[in-house]
Amino acid sequence: PLAAQPVVTFEPGPQVIVITLPAGQTQGATGSIHLYRPSDARLDRNVPLALNEEGIQRLDARDLRGGLWKVRVQWQVGGKDYFVDQPVIVTL
Question: pTM score, two decimals?
Fold first, then answer.
């Protein structure tokens, strides 16, 4: 268990999905982000985890269809594996 949970949100203005890992989980973290579209698996995407120095990654969502997406973030740090699943509603 983590002291603080990762946060996955959608920002409609800039049309981005924002992933924030908790402090202490970012240094040397490697992993991937899977965007899953429940209504059409052909739209699924995988993106490498590439956090900035604050532990944040922004994904451009302008080319995603509006509606429900499930975001799975998987990462490894300090020899341990972690993941979080979070639903996000993309609005156009």
Answer: 0.89
